[in-house]
Amino acid sequence: MSDSGAEVPSSSSPSLRRRLFTRYQKFLDDLVPFKTFRWLFALFIVVCYTVRVVLLQGWYIVSYALAIYLLNLFVAFISPKIDPAFEDDEETEDGPQLPTTSNEEFKPFIRRLPEFKFWLRTVYAVVVAFTCTFFVFCNVPVYWPILALYFIVLFSYTMKRQIMHMIRYRYLPFTHGKRRYKGKDATVLQ
User: Fold this and answer.
1) What's the number of CA atoms in the CB half-sphere (13 Å) around residue 64?
2) Cα distance between residue 120 and residue 176, in whole Å
3) pLDDT band with cut points at 50, 70 and 90 for residue 92
4) 1, 156, 157, 187: least CB-packed within 10 angstroms?
């Protein structure tokens, strides 16, 4: 306790941290409409990472971990938020459902991982993997053809299982835009 009664000023780091987070969030919010640019940027950093790994001829275990993580993200991206396999009865449902027959009303496909979060996590993962290539301790010596073969088998099995799930519960995670119907005068706005 001090006799003067003056309080010690608190650190400004929480307010600085809050301001930086707000700016970062504003930057991300501004990026949302630019889907093509975002994915071209993601492709660019993946190509840069791939070129670095090929030129250095190492860090295959980091590349394998990155590929497994990206596969996991992709499966979450094409999966519905509410899995129809776990639906027992309709009274206990709190959220939207996918139609199972042709005479049910249309309910939109809601992804388990939205597109923007898929892109953001992809960029984060590639940046972390790229950063790992600067550290020698991350360069674990492995026989890379076995990792590549194992990833191909894992990818094939996972995608086969996911496609069978899509067929069984009749959903398609990709849309091609809004349908446009021709009227009697055969003019269609595009």
Assistant:
1) 21
2) 23
3) very low
4) 1
pLDDT tens digit sequence for 50-72: 999 999 999 999 999 999 999 99
Q: What is the C-alpha separation between 61 and 138, in angstroms, rounded?
A: 8
State whether residue 184 is helix, strand or coil. coil
pLDDT in tens, 147-176: 999 999 999 999 999 999 888 887 777 766
**d(Cα 17, Cα 6) in Å, to the nearest integer?**
26
pLDDT digits (tens, 9 = 90+) for 14-32: 788 899 999 999 999 999 9
Q: Which residues pair with 80 in a beta bridge?
A: 111
